[in-house]
Design goal:
The chain is an all-alpha fold. Helices cover 81% and strands 0% of the residues.
Length: 562
């Protein structure tokens, strides 16, 4: 027998040492438990009083729980427990059954979704082929060449137009200067016209105010006329009543006068009678004149209106007044509406001009965007053509590899049973690559194990063929474990302390730093370029290869120490 290795000896020694430590720890624990038990039996240990109280309470709770369990195990509770167990078992069975059905349906749904996705891809491929066959490439190429020629012609025409526009810009600038002068003159005349219009507007407002005032006065006089008519009617009634009273008094006086004339002596004063007669005549003449004047006025009114009824004349007068007022109001509204329409017309004209300018501007912008989109389309067409070529190459590669996989599958004589439960293809295809490779790997592993078993146990060992068997024996490969790359391979040396101190640590300041301007940036870059540490500050190199002067001091200190 081979002697045990030193690593095995050290591991056995460590295990033995751990066992001895554990044995000693258990002995100490047993001794402590024995002393505690002795103290408890004597009843002198004060720490166990609380534990006794806890044990008593726990014992009471245990007895109560035991009683509750005994009661729960009685006849009625047993029946309920049995019933609950049956229901639980039935529910668990139904739950497992439903879970299996759900899993089967989920797998079926996944397969259906995969089939739908596949069919959609096939439809897209068919559509792309149909579109490619319909549009002929030669016709498109001819059309593109014609378009390119037309675009070049348009570009030349645009260049000529641009040159003409540049030539005309000078003339336009001169015209603009002339128009600015005309605009100044126009502004002067415009201000004069606006002042004249303001005066006319003031005059019109005064006329409107006077007309409104006259209309208000007319309404006031009409109302006064109505009130005077009503008052006249009332006065007429009062006067009629007074005349009746006076007639009664006159009759009474006449009777009295006749009585006194007969009974008394009648004295005659001719002068007084003449004056009275003259006054009476004068009053009668005045009354006749007033009557003639009023009758003339009434006759004129009757001739003008062709009416003899006073109420109808008043109604006709009011109607005419209303008509005149409505005409006046309509005229005012017409003038206001005319003014509003005039302003709206000017506003619409200005909006039309602005809209036309905006449309021209947007048309130019749209043309530019269309040109950019056309350029992008051309670029994207080139990209899509490259992608299509790459796609055809990848598809061809996938088909070739799949054919080889199918040949390998048939060569290994793998079973087609796992494909029977799937929807769609019932044989190895691109859509079942994972399952196909899994079946191939399982079959290969099975063959490797059979070969290993056959070589290990069935074949007889012989002296002649032992070397050949060892040479051609197929053994399973052990798993390869990942190992990290050593640090000395990744990094050839440690960071240089002199470069780090010269490059980074010396630039740390306690005061707050100010942002650099252009001159400070230039000076800082110049200083960095002059420093030797700047060339190798970001590299890792040994201290002996450093070119910074401070590295020589560090090496000298080390040599002095040694």
């Amino acid at each position: 027998m081979d002697p045990p290795s030193p690593e095995h000896q050290t591991s056995d020694f460590e295990v033995q040492k751990k066992m001895e430590d554990e044995h000693l720890r258990l002995q100490r624990q047993v001794r402590m438990i024995q002393t505690d038990r002795q103290h408890r039996s004597l009843g002198v240990h004060p720490q166990f009083r609380r534990q006794d109280h806890l044990l008593r309470t726990l014992k009471k709770e245990y007895l109560n729980l035991y009683k509750d369990l005994k009661i729960a195990r009685s006849g009625a509770h047993k029946k309920n427990d049995k019933k609950m167990k049956k229901e639980l078992t039935r529910a668990l069975l139904t739950r497992t059954q439903h879970e299996e059905e759900c899993e089967e349906r989920l797998t079926l749904m996944e397969q259906v979704e995969e089939l739908l996705h596949r069919k959609n891809k096939e439809l897209l491929q068919i559509n792309s082929k149909v579109i490619a066959n319909i549009g002929e490439l030669e016709v498109r190429r001819g059309l593109s060449e014609n378009r390119l020629q037309s675009a070049e012609n348009k570009l030349e025409v645009a260049m000529w137009r641009f040159n003409e526009v540049q030539c005309e810009n000078k003339k336009i600038r001169r015209e603009i200067e002339h128009m600015l002068n005309d605009r100044a003159l126009f502004n002067q005349s415009w201000t004069k016209m606006m002042s004249a219009l303001d005066k006319g507007k003031k005059f019109l407002t005064d006329l409107f105010e006077s007309s409104t005032l006259a209309y208000d006065q007319r309404d006031e006089w009409c109302s006064k006329l109505k009130s005077a008519q009503e008052k006249g009617k009332v006065d007429q009634m009062v006067q009629v009543q007074e005349m009746r009273d006076l007639q009664k008094a006159f009759d009474h006086e006449m009777k009295l006068y006749n009585f006194l004339a007969k009974k008394g002596v009648m004295r005659i004063n001719e002068k007084a009678e003449k004056t009275e007669e003259a006054q009476k005549k004068k009053q009668e003449e005045d009354i006749e004149k007033d009557l003639e004047a009023h009758s003339k006025i009434f006759s004129d009114i009757n001739d003008y209106t062709n009416e003899y009824d006073v109420n109808k004349i008043i109604e006709q007068f009011e109607r005419v007044e209303h008509e005149n007022f409505s005409i006046y109001k309509l005229l005012n509204e017409y003038c206001a509406e005319n003014e509003v329409l005039k302003r709206g017309k000017e506003k619409l004209i200005q909006e039309i001009v602005d809209r036309r300018d905006w449309n021209e501007k947007m048309e130019d912008k749209r043309q530019k965007e269309l040109q950019e989109l056309r350029d992008k389309l051309e670029k994207q067409k080139l990209v899509t053509e490259d992608k299509k070529k790459q796609l055809t190459q990848k598809v061809q590669l996938l088909n070739d590899t799949m054919e080889k996989v199918e040949e390998l599958f048939k060569m290994l004589d793998c079973s087609l049973e796992p494909y029977q439960n799937l929807l769609g293809d019932k044989q190895p295809s691109l859509h079942h690559v994972n399952l196909t490779f899994r079946l191939i790997t399982d079959k290969i592993q099975e063959l490797i194990q059979l070969t290993y078993y056959y070589e290990k146990h069935i074949q007889k060992k012989s002296d002649k063929s032992s070397s050949r068997l060892k040479k051609y024996t197929v053994r399973p490969q052990p798993p390869e474990y990942w190992t990290a790359t050593p640090i000395h391979v990744l990094v050839p040396a440690d960071p240089c302390p002199a470069c780090i101190e010269a490059r980074w640590l010396s630039r740390v300041t306690d005061s707050p730093e100010v942002p650099f301007d252009k001159a400070m940036c230039a000076t800082a870059l110049k200083e960095l370029a002059d420093e030797p540490a700047f060339e190798r500050s970001d590299r890792i190199h040994p201290l002996t290869e450093c070119r910074v002067p401070s590295s020589r001091l560090i090496l000298a200190r080390r040599y002095m120490q040694y």
